[in-house]
Design a protein that fits this description.
The complex is a heterodimer of chains A (352) and B (47). By secondary structure, chain A is mostly helical. Chain A is built from 15 helices and no strands. The chains are: A mainly alpha (352), B mainly alpha (47).
Chain lengths: 352, 47
Amino acid sequence: MKGNNRVLFFTSLGHFINDSFLVLFPVLSMYYLSLGINATAIGILGAVYNFLSGFLGAPIGRISDRTGKYAELMFMGFLLIFLSGIFFILSFFNSDLFIKYVTVSIASLLLGSGLAFYHPLGGAILQLSYDKDEAPKALGINGSMGSLGRAIAPYVMVVLFDDLGVTKGLLAVLIVTLMLSFTTYYGLKEFSYKQEKNLVQEGEMASLKPYMYILLPLTVIVFVRSMFIAGVQLFAPTYLFMLYKSHYVAGVFLTISYATAIIGQPYFGKLTSQKGGRFVVILTTSLSTVFYLLFVYLKNYYVQLLSFAIFAFFPLAAFQIYLAMYPKSLIKRFLPEQTGSFGVMETCLAEL
Amino acid sequence: MLGGALGMIIGGPIAGSFGFFYAMLTYGILGVVSSIFLIFLPKTAKT
């Protein structure tokens, strides 16, 4: 395999593995309620892994830029995810509720930490391997593999968990994950890059003042919207399970819905370049809310499936839309072209 | 990430106290709130 194609193949495989685990905790939540773990604890533990996966991304990006050990760090992330899975399995073995809480908490911490590794590393490897013109296409292919992982995982997980039992099903998922992680590591280990310096310098936050007229409303919208979307992603499987009394139905809902995001991402990217960021932000934010409310209110299987799929079609495609709203001078100044560190733009867009 | 974490935290107690329907409804209200803020978006971005 040629150098760049090889990098694209193995980083995409890594993205597939990583994003498959984004749905693990929401799927397991359906099973945890029946084990006596309450909804408040599920919300807090979900918040812990969500926060860690975002918060640790920037320091991991900086370490990778300094050391050039992208493949090693990526593998470390997968190992943490694997370990989190082991703790999730242990939580199903013990009947003591306190032990369950302890093991699920450790698992959430490990999952959040593990999920923080891939995105800064995969993006940086691709941007360092491809030239400026080819990088967006490579990132697009890589991104769709992540979406594919997120779409397939809920269905595969609920089928395995229901057929084999949660512990054996999750163990099967983990064994495959470990094999794919080794494959990704061996595929990428000969690629090592070192960054001379981070393009985003400290102290540049102060010069954001001229952009506050757009940063402020966008940040508020992104913040509130991310509360909305993250909460739905965590609790939707359990809500669907309560409604239809079937893990399988919940898995099908999630798989179909996340699959719409695979189409939505390139579609809204194209629409943004044709109609502009503001139009698409208004369209996606308002319509996703309308279809979500239809999903909540209309309790018919097919109507709910359709409305949830359309809802998922919008928000998961949001990153490039919001980015298009920012003034070009701001993006040029603060969005690193060749670094795993995200800087200021991450602060504004981290929720996405 | 703070928004996402906060969103996950608020749903739990609502689901625990009133049921999952109301937790999901709360997220719908957050969606409406984010849509209301759209009116504050400037029409054109200065370059």
